[in-house]
Design a protein that fits this description.
5 copies of one chain form a homopentamer.
Chain A lengths: L1 E10 L12 E6 L11 E5 L8 E6 L1 H6 L9 E6 L2 E4 L8
Parallel strand pairs in A: 3-5
Antiparallel strand pairs in A: 1-2, 1-4, 2-3, 4-5
């Protein structure tokens, strides 16, 4: 999983019929300081995530498992709303 | 899924026979400002995308699901034509 | 596998029910000098890794195999606690 | 698929027996101007590609499908010889 | 496959039991000049590779196929010892 923030949605009238009814959320991956990191993706929402929420998302087969749609052309899904992140960054300086 | 723009096609006379009849579109991934981002890919069109259109594409197993060709050597497919992108970028500044 | 250090945890009350009971650890990939390298991920702990420990983690299908949960939306798992790394970096200069 | 150029071969006497008889081609991914982009890979040739040819290659499961060897440790295959690339780069400037 | 050099090993006493008995080799991906390129990985040795040897390695499902352990949490394996690399780099300048 990666940490991201839901920042928008896309509308696609013409699409694979297996995607009808899915909520397609633009999700921006974030670093540990919650700053944008890398390219945004379009993830299927499976947990009722709202715009602006901090989420955990998965990619690949895990995203079809999350959507309970193994036969849909999905390659990224939101699987959790993050309430809290506890990090001890000082650990990164210790060898 | 990722956001891209269809910018061309390739012609390949000698190819895997399972690819015969597929439309191979050169697709450029875009960032949220719709500027090119990262390397272009050759994606199979499954929704009738035309040159210049803004699309959503998937990679990996999802692309074979999209093409309804699980036994074809496909690793990227266009799955939707994007009509509209709604983003609230100010959310990226909020921690 | 890659080398990483467990630097924290996330709390997600609202999440895919298949993730209930998994320990979600923020893991920072490291280079050979044990400095941070690339973006951190949220990996499922399958070996009792503690905060601060040096670990080996896998991604993709291997992570669901590690978790013994093939039907869970998992795409990264910790599979070992690293006791020792033996590297001969001088080999990198030899052609 | 990605665009690449076959620039060489490797010889490996000691290798997985499932790879015996495969043609292992060093393939350099290219950008749209056909300049090298990113790291080269070793791809299995499935279409009779020669040194110097412009090719389309796939990665992951698609590469085993291409090789018709689902039980071989293959993660990249050449699936087509590119005759022609038609691109309209001006489309990348249009938002 | 990618080209790499085996530069070390890791010791992990506490690990997934399916990994017991596997040889975990730190492998550094190399560019075509055999200089380090990108992050090192921990790959399972399936061909008797020694420290310092130039190898071909695969990632993903192909690595479990190589190890003949489809139910092990493996995501990278060494599949060949490279005896010789024949490259014609001048081809990269030809469009």
């Amino acid at each position: 999983m990666k940490i991201g923030r839901v920042i928008g949605t896309i509308v696609a009238t013409r699409k694979d019929e297996k995607l009808i009814g899915t909520k397609l959320m633009i999700t921006q991956p974030l670093d540990l300081d919650l700053n944008p990191l890398g390219e945004s993706i379009i993830a299927v929402d499976t947990v009722g995530a709202g715009i602006g929420e901090l989420v955990a998302f998965v990619t690949g087969t895990a995203s079809r498992i999350a959507a309970r749609k193994m036969d849909s052309p999905i390659d990224a899904s939101i699987v959790g709303i993050i309430d809290e992140i506890d990090i001890n960054k000082s650990l990164l300086g210790n060898k």
